[in-house]
Design a protein that fits this description.
It contains 15 helices and 15 strands. Strands 4-3-9-10 form a four-stranded parallel beta sheet, with helices on both faces. It has a four-stranded antiparallel beta sheet with strand order 5-6-7-8. A three-stranded mixed beta sheet has the order 12-11-13, covered by helices on one side. Helix 4 packs across helix 6, helix 12 runs antiparallel to helix 13 and helix 14 packs antiparallel against helix 15. It is elongated. The two termini are about 40 Å apart. The structure holds one RNA strand of 78 nucleotides.
Length: about 450
RNA sequence: GCGUCGGUGCCCGAGCGGCCCAAGGGAACGGCCUGCAAAGCCGUACAGUCGCGGGUUCAAAUCCCGCCCGGCGCUCCA
């Protein structure tokens, strides 16, 4: 297994901390607004990584946090005249519902920042005691220049960062160095606060993820992931905190690319985002189509989403479903354990090279084509081909063959399909076509096969 | 400006120095199948400059250098 490690800047061999186990921490959302397709990409990327590891026999410990206290939440609570916990609770529920609707597996742990404040305070105390941090009236800060290798993750030196990156934000005059960042923010009026040795306040953004990842997964956990927009400052600063505290942080860093719309990153500030709920409301089939789009593009490459791309992907999914219908129609035993070992090898080697999902999906579609051919030709090879295609597609959570294949018990439809068979037998094609049209208006598609008609909801 | 990832057919998009006259998906065209369809299979046209220009190599879409174009990041914020 090889993967691209952001820190080393190249594809490297993946050697887990413990044999047969993978510990994965992926930064989750700040819950204060609608989850959009950018969140979907991030979550789906690690969902696919996790599913693949599990299918490969690893025991995976997947942690994804929820940031439930930050400026955005505070502002929203203020604007809506409610409390921060109410805002966070509401939007977390929305987020989880969206994830469920995209068939994204819940992480094994979903820690909340507000539940880890004590650990964060302890962590900051370590940094204070060893001289890496200092307190001012406005908060507690990390002495960035004292950290060995600060900026390695973004492949820049502190001087380069200072030279090019400090013109955007007003610099707090109490800081020793403009590069230093907040570990703890002193309380401001009206904000929720927690007690600390440095007075009431709330934790800085980066300390949350350090406390939660190390707290749950332990030192030297395997993979830290997130969107590539987090490489700096968030992940760079997380890493700096861990180093300053003499803790061993993640062994590998992986970052997914952005999802763009109209040539730009989808984001709330640009107001060009599509919420997951809206996209699914347009067409429920978009859930699986979205997953196929993610799979057919490498996770480190930007995706440009538009209606045409969505439509293409929906058609791709239909091709997978159609094969299963066909296989079911000719009586292939879906519980068979026959597999095409050679295809599985190709699938594995694609995935083992930095999660080469596009190549892996190509193997799945080749299996689909060969399975269709074998079914048409009445060959017994159809069984392993079809079942391997289904298994591999479902490793990725595509739920092939799960959706609408077994729409049992619809006796009215069965009766109409049977009536059409009779009409055809009597050469009454006008009647047969009328029934087919009527079914189509009901959202039912009938397909004739060598062994009789099959139907499905379109 | 600096860092980083990228620029491949009509569209999306793989390609990890020779198996690439370039995978897979979508759309198109022709054939087979069908009462007609749908689904499927077979075949065809699309990439003949793999952004542009140099270079390394017996061999480059793949490595190196320069340039052009685009995404993301560049501080207490997803």
């Amino acid at each position: 297994m090889k993967l691209y490690d952001t820190l080393q800047g190249e594809i490297v061999e993946f050697v887990p901390r413990n044999d047969g186990e993978v510990s994965l921490y992926a930064c989750g959302p700040t819950v204060y607004s609608h989850p959009h397709l950018g969140h979907a990409r991030q979550a789906m990327t690690y969902d696919i990584v996790r599913r693949y590891f599990e299918w490969s026999g690893y025991r995976v410990h997947h942690v994804a946090n929820v940031t439930d206290i930050d400026d955005n939440i505070i502002n929203r609570a203020l604007a809506e005249d409610t409390t921060e916990p109410e805002i966070a609770k509401y939007w977390e529920a929305v987020y989880i519902e969206a994830m469920d609707s995209l068939n994204i597996l819940p992480p094994h742990d979903r820690p909340h920042a507000t539940e880890f404040v004590e650990e964060m305070v302890d962590f900051i105390e370590v940094l204070m005691n060893n001289g890496s941090a200092y307190a001012t009236d406005s908060g507690v800060y990390l002495r960035v220049r004292s950290v060995e290798g600060y900026g390695d993750l973004v492949h820049r030196t502190p001087d380069e960062i200072a030279e090019h990156g400090l013109n955007r934000v007003e610099v707090d005059e109490t800081k020793e160095d403009p590069l230093d960042f907040a570990l703890w923010k002193a309380a401001k009026p009206g904000e929720p606060t927690w007690d600390s040795p440095w007075g009431p306040g709330r934790p800085g953004w980066h300390i949350e993820c350090v406390a939660m990842s190390l707290g749950i997964l332990g030192d030297g956990f395997d993979i830290h992931g997130g969107g590539n927009d987090l490489v700096f400052p968030h992940h760079t600063n997380e890493r700096a905190e861990a180093i300053a505290a003499n803790r061993t942080f993640s062994k590998y860093w992986i970052h997914n690319a952005m999802l763009n719309i109209g040539g730009e990153k989808m984001s709330k500030s640009l107001n060009n985002f599509n919420t997951i709920a809206d996209v699914l409301a347009e067409d429920p089939a978009n859930a699986r189509a979205l997953r196929l789009i993610m799979l057919q593009t490498h996770y480190r490459k930007d995706i440009e989403i538009n209606d045409a791309v969505m439509a293409q992907a929906r058609d791709g999914i239909k091709r997978l479903d159609a094969m299963v219908r066909k296989a079911t129609g000719v009586g292939i035993d879906l519980s068979s354990t026959e597999r095409d070992a050679e295809a599985i090898d190709r699938f594995r080697s694609a995935m083992d090279h930095d999660f080469g999902t596009p190549d892996a999906m190509a193997t799945v579609f080749e299996l689909v084509r060969d399975a269709n051919g074998a079914i048409d030709a009445g060959k017994s090879a159809a069984t392993p081909l079809a079942l391997t295609a289904i298994e591999l597609a479902n490793v990725f959570g595509l739920e092939v063959g799960v959706a609408d294949v077994a729409s049992e018990g619809d006796s009215d439809i069965e009766a109409m399909v049977a009536a059409r068979v009779d009409a055809k037998a009597n050469k009454d094609f006008a009647e047969a076509d009328r029934i087919r049209d009527e079914l189509r208006e009901m959202g039912i598609t009938v397909e004739d096969t060598a062994t009789g008609p099959i139907w499905h909801r379109s």
